[in-house]
Amino acid sequence: MAQISRANWSDALPRKNFFDLCLLEANSGFRSGATLKPSAWTRIAEGLEKTIGKRLNQRQLKNGWDYMKRQYQTWTKLTNTTGHGYNSVTRTINWPDKRWEENLKANIL
Q1: Are 9 and 68 in contact (CB under 8 A)?
Q2: 3-state secondary structure of 5
Q3: Is the whole model's pTM more than 0.85, yes or no?
Q4: How far is CA 103 from CA 8, 54, 72, in A?
Q5: Could you give the angle at which helices 38-52 and 58-79 cross, rounded to 10 degrees?
Q6: Shortest CA distance to 5 belongs to which of 62, 67, 50, 53?
Q7: What is the Cα–Cα distance from 42 to 44, expressed in whole angstroms?
Q8: Residues in domain Myb/SANT-like (predicted)?
């Protein structure tokens, strides 16, 4: 068995491959509640090893799933806010500083 690699979910290629593999497993009926079944994680690990050359364990994959899920939930909340100012060209939220401060106080601090 190959040595376990360090997961880096900020790299675009591993992230996209991971997302595509998770989507394939979920759409194939290997979802269990809010996550995937153990057999799906094994296939995802094998798929990532083939496509990006890194071997990740189930815990790393589940952490990646949870990390991206939190990012998506945050993005959804921001873009669904009335007057959100989402710029589809730059893919950013264009709020004035005061609005960001209010949002941070309400949701993080």
Answers
A1: yes
A2: coil
A3: no
A4: 28, 38, 17
A5: 90
A6: 53
A7: 5
A8: 15-102
